[in-house]
């Protein structure tokens, strides 16, 4: 009886972890897609733009 309850708990936790992994993978996929779109929008910028960017302020 206790072993069956432990098994049910393990299965529930495994299902939760699978859902979390799927959600994380989708978020990462969306991030990569947006980064790609941002890079495409910068493709028409003149050469040398941003090379001397000062981020110390």
Q: How would you describe what is shown here?
A:
The chain has one helix at 2-41. By secondary structure, the protein is an all-alpha fold. The protein is elongated. The N and C termini lie far apart (64 Å). The model has no long low-confidence stretch (mean pLDDT 83).
Q: What's the number of helices?
A: 1
What do the pLDDT scores average to? Answer: 83
**Strand segment tally:** 0
User: Helicity level, as a percent range?
Assistant: over 70%
Uncertain stretches of 5 or more adjacent residues: none
Measure the end-to-end span.
Answer: 64 Å
- Hey, roughly how much beta strand do the residues contain? under 5%
Class derived from helix and strand content: mainly alpha
Order of helices and strands: H
The dominant shape is elongated
Main beta sheet: strand number and arrangement? none
Rg, Cα atoms, Å: 23 Å
């Amino acid at each position: 009886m206790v072993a069956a309850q432990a098994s049910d708990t393990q299965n529930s936790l495994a299902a939760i972890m699978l859902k979390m992994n799927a959600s994380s993978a989708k978020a990462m996929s969306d991030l990569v897609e947006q980064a790609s779109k941002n890079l495409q929008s910068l493709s028409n910028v003149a050469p040398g733009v941003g090379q001397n960017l000062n981020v110390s302020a």
